[in-house]
Amino acid sequence: MSLRVRDLHAGYRNGEVLHGVDLDVEAGRTLAVxxxxxxxxxxxxxxxxxxxxxTRGSVRLDDRDLAGARPDRIARAGIALVPQGRRIWPTVTxxxxxVLAGRRRTSPLWTVERLNDLFPVLAxxxxxxxxHLSGGEQQMLAIARALITGPRVVxxxxxxxxxxxxxxxxxxxxxxxVTRSGVAVILVExxxxxxxxxxxxxxxxxxxTVAHRADTPAFRRDPETAHRLLGVTT
Length: 234
Ligand SMILES: Nc1ncnc2c1ncn2[C@@H]1O[C@H](COP(=O)(O)OP(=O)(O)OP(=O)(O)O)[C@@H](O)[C@H]1O
Hints:
Elements: E1 2-12, E2 15-26, E3 30-34, H1 41-48, E4 54-61, E5 64-65, H2 71-77, E6 79-82, H3 94-102, H4 112-118, H5 120-124, H6 135-147, E7 153-157, H7 165-180, E8 184-188, H8 192-198, E9 201-206, E10 209-215, H9 216-220, H10 223-230
Helix pairs in contact: 3-6, 6-7
The protein binds adenosine-5'-triphosphate.
Adenosine-5'-triphosphate (ATP) is lined by residues 12, 14, 17, 35, 37-43.
């Protein structure tokens, strides 16, 4: 399985945001997408999911081009988004989240039992309202809700946002478990500690284009590039 994105253009009424993005990710690998605020990372994930309509380019999952397809068709083809801010439903229980998402299941890879093993806290709290979970637990639920649909590619938008370091470590372990199952991950993330821990490769977006690409060890050996493109000291 591979996802190949070529020359992707997309934006909003007030203008184009992505000006021809290329990226590739394979089964069982994690690609991190980095960039300064406003670079277009969320727009990229939302375009891959069909929530923003591309104006040009291709999004090939194996031999199917999904560019321009509706989100439900993209989900059925095997792409799932864990959105920025998690978007869980506060007044719905943990179990109901998984039951509702499980109706859209396209593969039996991630069963409820398997998700319970990966997220024992969600199993314990299955009858609680999601709004009563901690931020970390809500993020686990958002990831579980994506996995239960049986995706081949999971798009994660800033999963560490607002979480304590120990909880971010758990997110890292979760991403490792997801890729070990053969699923590909595209991770948009500001926390470089998490990125360096889980990503095989890194693509940096600047002003809607790919400014840099490297495997993670090479990126770590090049702090000047990280500083120039991201404004951070690694
Ligand atoms: N719904 C929208 N309508 C119009 N413009 C938008 C919309 N969403 C984002 N934009 C604009 O698109 C550009 C890219 O935003 P985007 O959220 O994709 O960046 P980002 O790299 O994810 O930033 P951050 O790291 O802050 O989340 C910004 O200029 C933003 O103002």
